[in-house]
Amino acid sequence: MRKSIWKNLICATGVLALVMALRPTTSAAPVSEVKGCDQFLVPKKNDINGKPVGQEVCRMTEIEFEYQGRKYMRLDVGVTGTLEGYALKDDKARYSNYFNVYPEFVYQQGGEEDKPVVHGIGRYSMEQGSSMTVVYPVNKADWNGKLFVNAHGAGRSFARGNAKFWYEELTETDPIAGISKYEKLMIDKGYIMAKTRRSTLMQGGDLNVTLDDGTVLKNRNVTEQPPLIMQFAKLAANLAQPHLGALPSKTYWYGHSGGARPGRMVSYKAGINVDTDGTPIIDGVIVDDAGSGLWLPVAMKDGKDVIFTTDEDKKRMVPTIEIGHLLYVNETPDDPPVFRGSNNFLHNKRQNAKILRDKGMWNKFRYYEIDGISHGGGENLPDGKRGDISIIDMSRLMDGFIDHLDAWVDKGVAPPPTRSDWRELGDIDKDNIVENPAIDMPEVGCGLGVYHIFPVSSGASGQGTTGFAGFTGTGLEPIDGRGEFRDDPDIVNVAQGFVDMNGNGYRDYVETVTEAWQRTGMLKPNETFNRERFLQCVEKVITKLEVDKFFTKKTVDFYKQQARTMPLPAK
């Protein structure tokens, strides 16, 4: 017992020392000491097998800072607590590490529905990185009255070493560092922004789960636990309320990949998105490139699909904007059920949209495909570049998506129709013409080259990022990150992977911009690329995106200025 007391004392002293050592050297106010925040915790659920389940301990630090002329408060919050859910005892199963709340989706769609499912309670801990960063405006007049909660994707784990102790998240001298471009948009628009962190390592995790029979399962993750994200959102609202004078009128969810997948389940799984007063906890969702393109709105019981089958059932769907990245071409090794039909991520995303359409959910759902972008949207790269990685800045579109979701939820103003290159979704009047194709930003619609997967610095694993190959008119189409092979000693430079810039299927010479634009019909055979034609093209692309309110005026002005001043290829 004495050892435990001294250990806790030393730990607390160390926490305080670390936090004080993290004082920024800018004009921001210093980080305060670690504070208790248990009074703001979300009330626990009723006893589960004789045990209350929910948030137990809250600790935080706070710092005031200035960003773009406004003052904000940043809270870094650690939370410890428990969750109920379901698991597999079979450690060899692909989804055995997923401690989740909807086994009828996870195991059925993962091809593991024949394995016995067990119930238990898992414990998450701030000491193993369960935390969030909350940012809200100091001036009440700068708050829009709403909150955006953000859920990251898979792969984060304290055991792996890419998750931090909760009090180590503020490690930069700039308090806005570590906040993504999308989150900065939310802050700038006046939202309370809650950036959540949880254990999401797919083949592992940081949680121990105690089953109802007393058995303890180790190394579980909480990727598929939307109630955890919702509890974080409610805690963030409680923390900001004393300063802002009210709780948020609306709460929105943004999730990427493994944070987008449970974002779908906010609506798909009955009983999840219900507050104590019967109202929704989450009022709207942005699903950004859902992990594996899953889960689909289908659950089979006794040979019948039981999801969204009645009008009452459909009422739980909240307005959802889903984004699909066309250059993310990954596939899973699952054994999918017949209704899923494929392991291909893009197919699954499109199938999800088609199923919702066929079930009459189009009035609450929009799906927008984005060309030229792989899994990452450059949200964590200052200029979209790092080494050979070059990514179109999707924050310029996210700006519009955030506003569309808010207008849809708060004012009933529906966004533009679904956009997809798949004829099933993009051909609105079924005339075999895709009237609503995928969204092309100016970098694609007026391309001076092509964005491609497998940038060289990322190697073959770089499916989630992109590189850029320009229409220089010199040399052969470049080798991509998959490199070359030399199986035949007489052929030493056979390309294993190359950037097919003109789409003809073989490696040949790089075109000039004039040749590329002539090939695609953007220039007539006797016309030449020049600044004037480039300006005309950019104006056409951004005007359409502005009319549909995918681009804000700020973004339109940016592209106009860029088109007038950026260097253009000499040829």
3D architecture notes:
Helix 3 (181-188) crosses helix 8 (395-411) and helix 12 runs antiparallel to helix 13. The strands form six sheets. Strands 1, 4, 5, 6, 7, 8, 9, 10, 11, 12, 13, 16 and 17 form a 13-stranded mixed sheet that branches. Residues 1-27 have low confidence and may be disordered. It is built from 13 helices and 23 strands. It folds into two domains: 2-415, Rossmann fold (3-Layer(aba) Sandwich), CATH 3.40.50.1820; 514-571, no CATH class. Helices cover 25% and strands 21% of the residues.
Feature tags:
2 domains, single chain
How much helical structure, as a percent, in the residues? 10-25%
Q: Which oligomeric form is depicted? A: single chain
Query: What is the CA-CA span between the terminal residues?
Result: 77 Å
Uncertain residue segments = 1-27
Largest sheet: 13 strands, mixed
Report the portion of residues in β strands. 15-25%
The CATH architecture of the largest domain comes to 3-Layer(aba) Sandwich
**On the 0-100 scale, what is the average pLDDT?**
91
Examine the coordinates and then state which fold CATH places here, giving the name of the CATH topology of the largest domain. Rossmann fold
Number of E strands: 23
Structural domains: how many: 2
CATH-assigned homologous superfamily of the largest domain: Alpha/Beta hydrolase fold, catalytic domain
CATH class of the largest domain: Alpha Beta
Shape designation: globular
Number of helices: 13
Rg, Cα atoms, Å: 25 Å
Structural class: alpha+beta
